[in-house]
Amino acid sequence: MPAAGGKATSAPIMGHDNEPTIFELSSPGRRAASFRTTGLPEWDAAELVPAEHLRADPAPIAEISERDLVAHFTRLTHRQYSVDLGAYPLGSCTMKYNPKLCDDAASLPGLTDVHPAAPAALTQGWMELLADLEQSLCRVTGMHAATLQPPAGAAGELTGLLLMRAWDAEHGGRRSKIVIPDSAHGTNPASVTLGGYETVTVPSDGRGLVDVAALRERLDEDVAGIMLTNPNTLGLFEEDIAEIAAAVHEVGGLLYYDGANLNAILGVTRPGDMGFDIVHMNLHKTFAVPHGGGGPGAGPVAVSERLAPYLPGPRPVLGDDGAYRWEQPPKSIGRVHSWHGNALALARAYSYILANGGDGLRRVAEAAVLNANWLRTRLRGVYDLPYDRPNMHEFVASTSTLKKEKGLRALDVAKRLLEEGFHAPTVYFPLIVDEALMIEPTETESLQTLEALGDALERIAAGDAEEAHHAPRTTPVRRVDEARAARQLIPTWDSRE
Amino acid sequence: MGHYVPHTDAEIAEMLAFLGMSSLDDLFASVPEALRLAGGLDLQNGLSEPDTLATMERLADRNRRTGRELVCFAGGGAYDHEVPSTVRRVAFRSEFVTAYTPYQPEVAQGVLQALFEYQTLLCRLTGMEVANASLYDGASACVEAVNLAVAATGRQTVLLSDGVNPLWREVLHTFAAGTGHEYVACDVTNGVTRWPDDAEPAALLVQYPNYLGCLEDLAAARQLADKTGALLLVAFDPVAAGLLRSPGEFRADVVVGEGQPFGTPLSFGGPYLGLFTCKREHVRRLPGRLVGETVDADGRRAYVTTLRTREQDIRREKASSNVCTNQTLIAVACAVQLAWLGTAGLQELALRCARGTRYAHDALLAIDGVEPLNGAPIFREFAVATPTPGDVIVERMAEEGFLAGIPLGSEYGDRGLLISVTERRTRDEIDAYAAAFEKVIR
C-alpha cells in the first residue's frame, strides 16, 4: 500500500528558482491598503503632532499590489515543508498532525475579538475556558493548580525556577544550584542561569538513565532542585524516578518536570504521582498548537499544593456567585506575560483536549509509543541503536558505525531524507550520543507511513555516502552555506552590499 | 475518541506482534507499577468535532466581543486595528501554520525568507540595523533588552520610566528576581519622564509614546545615556513609525515593542509579538533567532538561521537568552500586514489614528468634569482625569455599547481612563461615545 498519507510526493515543491523579496517586487506608487470611511476631519500631521516629533520622510516599507503580495507569500509557502504536507519525525519536537477543528475553534470571533483588559463581566467565556483548561491540565499532570501565562516552554521553565526561588526564600533561602542531566534540552541550563542559579550536571548511566549514585553525590543543602524530562530525551522512562524524588526531597530540594515529552505518558502516569513539584507543559507539542514555523506555543506551569500560593497572577477563579473573577495568588512571584498568556493557543489546546477526552489522550500516548517502538525495531541492524530496548514516544539511532565504515554522517541522513519526501529527524541531539538521529514519528502517522519512512532510512543507510554528501538535490535550494551566513552576516535586505 | 490516531485494531495487533508484545500495556513496562494511573484520566470522554465546536461556541458566546455591540476605545498595548483579508488568508496558510522551526533550511525557505523580510521591515520602521525573528510579547522584549544592556555594560541598575506600560514593568520586576537586576523607578511629570542625573545605570528604558500616550523627550534621554555611558532602550509603538521620528534617529541602542497592531486581532492578549531590534554592535548578544542571507551549494540565494552559537541549544548555561519557541507565525502576519499597508498606507494609518485621537480628545475634554491628565503632546492614545473612578465608567459604558478604555490604577490617582482611538473609529462612533461618556460620569 502506498504511503501517500504522510509522505510528501513533491518535496521539491517549487525549486530551482529564487523567489524575489518584497523589496525587489516593490514599485513606486503601488499600494494594497484600504481604510474605513470615518467622516473625521482631515487634519494634516503638522496640526496633530509637534514638528520636532514628526519624521521628515515616510518610513520606507514596500510598494506592492495586493495581487503581487498574495502571489509572493503563496510562492514562499511552496518552498516550505509542513506537517500538513508530510511526516515530520523531529525527536522531542512532537510534530504531530493537528486537527483542523482546533483552527476553527481558535478563530471564533467571540474569542478573537476580545480585549485583554476588558472587565471580567465581559469576558466570562474566556475566563471559564482558561479556568477549565487549568483544571484539565492539573488532572493530566496530577498537580494542584496552574498558571497559563508562560507563552512557551522556556518561559515555563524560567517561571518554574522563579517559583523554586520564591519557595526557597521563605524556607531558609540560600540554595544556589540546580541539577540537570547531561541529556537535557539546552533551554534547561539557559533558564537556570536566568533564574539566578548555577547548573550542576549529572551524568547518564549505561542504561541512558540518570545515574542515581552520581546524583546522590551532588545532592546537598545548596541544591534548590532538579530539572528532569521524563521520558528523557533518549525516549527512555526514568525508572528510578521515585528514588530520585525521595533523594531530592530529602535534602529539601524541589523536582521540576520538563513537559517536552509529556505526550508519551498521557493517561499512563502523571508527574504529580512521580513526586514532581512543578511541571511545565508544551501545549504546542503535547496538545494541538501547530508550531507556526517556530511559534507561538504555550508553556503553562502546574504545581503541587504547597507551591500554588506563589503562582503568577492574576488567575481566573470561580466565585460563589457563579461568576469568574481575577485573583492574585497571595505570594505570587508576579506576572510573566503582558496579559493572560498566548490565549488563542490555549483555546486550541483546550479544544484538542475536549475532542480527545481522557480516553483519546491515553490513545495518543499508546499510539505514539507504539509507532516509535515499531520504527526502532524496523531499523535494528540498519543503524546503531545505542539504547536498543523498549522506548517511549521517541528513540535515538546513530550513524556511528556507518561513519566509520563509509563516512555517512547523521547530517547526510537528514539531508537525504528530505529528498525522500520526509522531514529530517532531530540530529546531533542529545549530546551524549555520537552522530545522533533522534526520531519521533508521533501518533498521527499511519503504519504505511512508518513503513515508507523505514524503507527510506534503510535505502539511505545502504546508499552511497559520497552521493549523500551532495544531498539534498531536489529541494527548493541545495545544502545551505551556514558558515558563510555567520561570517558575512546579512541580517536584512538593506545590509546587502 | 482518538479520532486522530489512524491505526485500525488489526494494524495495532500487527504492530504489537512485530514487537513481540501482546497488549498496548506492554509498551509501558518501564513505568513502575506503583506509578501507573489506575482508572484513566479524570476527564470526560472525547467529543465529536461538531460537539467540540458547539462547546467552544458556547464559551465564545459568553464573551462580549468588540465590534458594533461593543465599540472599542481601549488600548494600553492591545489595539483594535483592522486585520485585512490578505493577512488572514495568506499568513495563515497551512504551510506557515504547521511548519516547525527552520532547522532544515533546504525545506524551510518559505518561513526563513518571510522572517528575513520581517527583520528588514522592522529595521526600516525603527531605524535600527538588526532585528531578531520575534519574542513573545512587548513585556518579554523589554526583559531581553534589559538583559542585553546589563551584559553589554556590566552594570546591574536600570532607570525604568514610570511611563512604561505598568504590566510590562511588572514582568520586568518578576524576572529581576532571577537576574538580580535593579530598577530605579523614574516618575512621569506632566506626561514626560524625569530622569535622575546622579546614577550610573546600565540603561534607560523609556516607552515612546508612553503608556499615557505622551511623546517623551528621546533627545534628553539620549543625552543622559551618553553622559553616563548607559544604553538607551526604547519601547516603541510600531504604528507611530508612520508619523513620528524613529528611535533610530535618536540613536537608541535597542528598540523593542509590541507588534500586535500589525495583523493580530485583540485575541484576549495573545499570541502577540515581541519586537526586538538593536544596533549591529550588539548582534552577538541578540536574544532568540536571527535569519541571515547566504547561498546554497549551487551559489543561489538562500536563507538560514545564523549566529546560532548565541542560542541555548548550543551555548546552554552561557546562552544570551533561553528563548527557543518564539512567535514566528505572528511575525509572518506582521510582515504581510506591513507589506499590505506599504509606505503610503503606514503613513495613512498613523495619520488616521492621530486624527481620531485628536477628535475624541477634544470631544471628551469639552465635557464638564473631564480634565486632561497632563499637557504633553499625544499621538494615538490619551489619558483623562474623571470625576468618577475609571472602572465604574468602564462598567457603565459597557451598558451603552462601548469598551470605554482602561482604568488608570492608583499610580495615576485612581480617577482616570486611558483611551485609544484606532483607524477603525468613525466620527459617528466617537460622537456617540462622547455623549454616553457625558451621561455616565455623573
List the helices and strands and how they pair.
The complex is a heterodimer of chains A (497) and B (442).
Chain A: H1 22-25, H2 45-48, H3 66-77, H4 100-105, H5 109-112, H6 124-141, E1 145-147, H7 153-170, E2 177-181, H8 187-194, E3 198-202, H9 212-218, E4 223-229, H10 241-250, E5 254-259, H11 271-274, E6 278-281, H12 283-286, E7 301-303, E8 315-318, E9 324-327, H13 343-378, E10 395-398, H14 400-406, H15 410-419, E11 426-427, E12 436-439, H16 447-462, H17 465-468, H18 482-487
Parallel strand pairs in A: 2-3, 2-4, 4-5, 5-6
Antiparallel strand pairs in A: 1-7, 6-7, 8-9, 10-12, 11-12
Chain B: H1 9-19, H2 49-61, E1 71-72, H3 85-90, H4 94-97, H5 109-126, E2 130-131, H6 138-153, E3 157-161, H7 166-179, E4 182-186, E5 188-189, E6 192-193, E7 203-208, H8 218-228, E8 231-236, E9 254-258, E10 274-278, E11 291-295, E12 301-305, H9 312-315, H10 328-365, E13 371-372, E14 381-385, H11 390-399, E15 402-403, E16 406-407, E17 416-420, H12 427-440
Helix pairs in contact in B: 5-10, 6-7, 10-12
Describe it for me?
With 497 residues, chain A is of the alpha/beta class. In chain A, 36% of the residues lie in helices and 10% in strands. Chain A has 2 domains: 103-355, 3-Layer(aba) Sandwich (Aspartate Aminotransferase, domain 2); 379-483, Aspartate Aminotransferase, domain 1. Chain A has a 7-stranded mixed β-sheet, sandwiched between helices. Chain A has a 3-stranded antiparallel β-sheet with strand order 10-12-11. In chain A, helix 7 crosses helix 8 (187-194). Chain A is globular and about 75 Å long. Chain B is built from 12 helices and 17 strands. Chain B has a 7-stranded mixed β-sheet with strand order 2-10-9-8-7-3-4, with helices on both faces. In chain B, helix 5 (109-126) runs parallel beside helix 10 (328-365) and helix 10 (328-365) packs across helix 12.
